[in-house]
Amino acid sequence: MFARAASCDVTPRDRPVRLAGYAARREAVSTVLDPIEVSAVLLEAGGRRCLIFSFDLMIVGTELQQAIHARLAPHGFAPAEIMLLASHTHFAPATDRACAPLGVPDGQFVADLVAASENLVGRMLQDQPAESRVEIKRGRLSHSVNRRRYWPLPTVGRTYGFKLTSTVMAPDPQGPTDEMATVLLLRRVDDDRVITAVWHYTCHATAVIPLNVISADFPGAVRRALRRRFGEIPCVFVQGFCGDIGPRIAGTGTQESLAGRLRRFARKVVSGPAFPPRVAGDWVRWSEGLAAGVAAIAGQPAESADIPATLSTGAAQIPLAEFFRGSAPDKPLTVQALRLGQAFELVALSAEVTVEWEAILDSALPASEARLRLYAGYLGALYGYLPTPGQIGEGGYEVTGFQPLFGLSGNFDAGKIATAVVGCAKRAIDDL
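Structure (tokenized):
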């Protein structure tokens, strides 16, 4: 296998921009807490190749995906060879018109991203490809929590009105998470130098305090930690199925007044529990702890190492009408798969996928025992959330609450969704 990698800073510093992620955050911002980047790695083996892009964005979106595909076509890259992944930070400029309620896209920023992506590919194609070894390193963190909590008491809210019981967005320590962090180091065979780090974790990038700043969130903190260890390497972040997973931050730095505590108690009585208030120090401690954990994993001995002789890609898509009834943007559910020899497999979906889908897909489509499979959400032209059949019956933000913000209006079909999604993933894997 041969690998080339590159990255660049795409932070808009010359004008205020509207960020994506929160409907209530309507003012453009110009304060930069830390840079946002685009990173890319070009992998080649056995006469096949794949480009993986990692964007510090909430989502990539239709317009950006189409523009990148068009710009890379003259370089010989087909859409099936290009994987566009977003970190899901809620502190980067918006890029998708379908999600305008969460942030109106900045046309100049989208154009800059397209140019930056093409420039990265040009730089990599000019570099001499290096025969590369893949080292896989894994370890557990303790930085996320499930955010779908059943609340047995009546609630009243602007989104759902009056409900006798509900599923609210609040910490559920008993709910499932995926605390396994994975780091793939790609090293040159000739001199052992690290070319790039591809790392994977499962957690919403919604931790930054304050809310009105530009930031890569925790992927940026991890990137800085990895670069302190390995030098100024490109760092490709692969966000997992974090649709119902949020940062596990205790909020120990808050100094809430008595009046503030009373207001929070009243909100809990009326609308159910919520995440505790946090201050900037809480975010800093949490993100630095997470970054230190990933860097420590990257520095430990590899659990496996391989020089893959083959590379294969696969893709499939289905219309949302196969599992959703109602109106929605013209966006299919897309699945892309990448396989490197016998060592590694990545399966990515164009949705905010809840973590419970890992078990559903593993059960229906088991991977080879010798091969590590990772799942990613936030691929390309993301349409919205993907709840499980069980979650559809429970309701909540990931089922109905998100829909107006993503341009959807309708109902998921609990009886069809598993068959449709598993079938699409199977076709992508078979296409490998």
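The longest strand covers residues 130-140. Residues 25 and 212 are 8 Å apart (CA to CA).
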